[in-house]
């Protein structure tokens, strides 16, 4: 069973974006970028995969700024 966190598209400016699991954000490592109808960045948090909207701005330390929100989908 895996849990996927999907960050919703931000309705604000490109600079206003994302807190996923606040403390966990620093642990995220972006290993792939997917260009779809939305620009998503796929990050891995431990054994979980997290889809971050392209509006999320990361620093070299992978800090996410403000988050719009996210939903969880449990896959079995």
The end-to-end span amounts to 4 Å
Radius of gyration from the CA trace? 11 Å
Approximately what portion of the residues adopt beta-strand conformation?
35-45%
Total beta-strand segments: 5
Give the low-confidence spans: 1-42, 53-76
Count of folded domains:
1
The whole-number mean of residue pLDDT values reads 38
Major β-sheet strand ordering: 2-3-4-1-5
Question: Oligomeric status of the shown chains?
Answer: single chain
The secondary-structure element order is: EEEEE
Alpha-beta classification: mainly beta
**Per the principal axes of the C-alpha atoms, what is the gross shape?**
globular
Please give the structural blueprint.
Layout: E1 2-7, E2 29-35, E3 39-45, E4 48-53, E5 70-75
Parallel strand pairs: 1-4
Antiparallel strand pairs: 1-5, 2-3, 3-4
Describe the structure.
This protein has 76 residues and is mainly β. The protein has one domain (2-75). It contains no helices and five strands. It has strands at 2-7, 29-35, 39-45, 48-53, 70-75. Strands 2-3-4-1-5 form a five-stranded mixed sheet, with no helix packed on it.
């Amino acid at each position: 069973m895996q849990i996927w966190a999907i960050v919703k598209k931000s309705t604000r400016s490109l600079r206003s974006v994302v807190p996923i699991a606040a403390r966990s954000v620093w642990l995220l490592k972006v290993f792939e970028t997917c260009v779809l109808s939305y620009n998503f960045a796929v990050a891995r948090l431990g054994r979980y995969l997290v889809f971050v909207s392209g509006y999320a701005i990361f620093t070299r330390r992978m800090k996410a700024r403000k988050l719009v929100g996210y939903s969880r989908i449990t896959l079995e």
